[in-house]
């Protein structure tokens, strides 16, 4: 158990509303990631963080922002949700500093934008 | 740019049959890491294995085995004597070694259905 929780686990919202997803970890890992999972695409990286207030974009970052004010929390915000952002969102952590460490994933958040 | 291709979108087998999942990758890096993850029907992602690019030794773990061939840029996964509990979506992934952020590039996944 990598000690990762995500909230909420399920959310239905309407187009144009803001949405924030939370990822919480209990083991003070430096690296945290947000991915989205869509059929046929596997998982694609949205944003990642390499420390408090240090974040960078992934391959599908448009329409998303992130914040990390504490080591344990990594927030993903959809400023104005669109139907194309309907997806399953996974948070991940990477233990250690070496580049060869595998990532461990949270349980996921299923988001539906109507 | 990195790319991972899992050409098989779905494989259906009968219990006790062997099943091999193909993974082909593209990268310009000389040092990199490959991974396999399992996603059962419950939805969580479970790490199975990591392999670095300078170690081409095949690995076996119980009924699971992995065949890494750098010459063909492939990292295939075989489940021997499949069981119903092996039914899941399996993802192959790639990352650059030593890269800041260690971002994973995933294939599209292969759904394995094991029928009793």
Number of strands of chain B: 12
Structural category of chain B: mainly beta
- Straight-line distance between termini of chain B: 41 Å
Task: Bin the helical content of chain B.
Answer: under 10%
| Low-pLDDT sequence parts of chain A | none
β-strand percent of chain A reads over 45%
- Radius of gyration of chain A, in Å, reads 13 Å
Mean pLDDT of chain A: 92
Q: Estimate the global geometry of chain A from the Cα principal axes.
A: globular
In N-to-C order, the SSE pattern of chain A is EEEEEEEEEEE
Share of helical residues of chain A = under 10%
Greatest interface and its participating residue counts = A-B, 26 and 28 residues
Oligomer state of the chains in this structure: heterodimer
Number of helices of chain B: 0
- Poorly predicted runs of chain B are none
If you average the pLDDT of chain B, what whole number results? 93
**Major pleated sheet of chain A:** 7 strands, mixed
**Residue share in β-strands of chain B:** over 45%
By secondary-structure content and strand pairing, the structural class of chain A works out as mainly beta
Shape category of chain B: globular
Radius of gyration of chain B, whole Å? 14 Å
């Amino acid at each position: 158990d990598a000690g990762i929780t995500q909230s909420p686990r399920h959310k239905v919202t309407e187009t144009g509303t803001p949405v924030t997803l939370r990822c919480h970890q209990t083991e003070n890992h430096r690296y945290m990631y947000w991915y989205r999972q869509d059929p046929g695409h596997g998982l694609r990286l949205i944003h990642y963080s390499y420390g408090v207030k240090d974040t960078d974009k992934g391959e599908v970052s448009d329409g998303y922002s992130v914040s990390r004010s504490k080591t344990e929390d990594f927030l993903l915000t959809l400023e104005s949700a669109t139907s194309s952002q309907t997806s399953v969102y996974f948070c991940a952590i990477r233990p250690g500093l070496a580049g060869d460490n595998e990532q461990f994933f949270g349980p996921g958040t299923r988001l539906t934008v109507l | 740019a990195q790319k991972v291709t899992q050409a098989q979108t779905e494989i259906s087998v009968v219990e006790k049959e062997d099943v091999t999942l193909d993974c082909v990758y593209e990268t310009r890096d000389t040092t990199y890491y490959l991974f396999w993850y399992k996603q059962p029907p419950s939805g969580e992602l479970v790490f199975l294995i990591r392999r670095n690019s300078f170690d081409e030794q095949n690995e076996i773990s119980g009924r699971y085995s992995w065949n890494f061939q750098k010459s063909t840029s492939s990292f295939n996964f075989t489940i021997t004597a499949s069981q119903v509990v092996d039914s899941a979506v399996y993802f192959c992934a790639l990352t650059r070694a030593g890269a800041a952020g260690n971002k994973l590039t995933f294939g599209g996944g292969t759904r394995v259905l094991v029928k009793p």
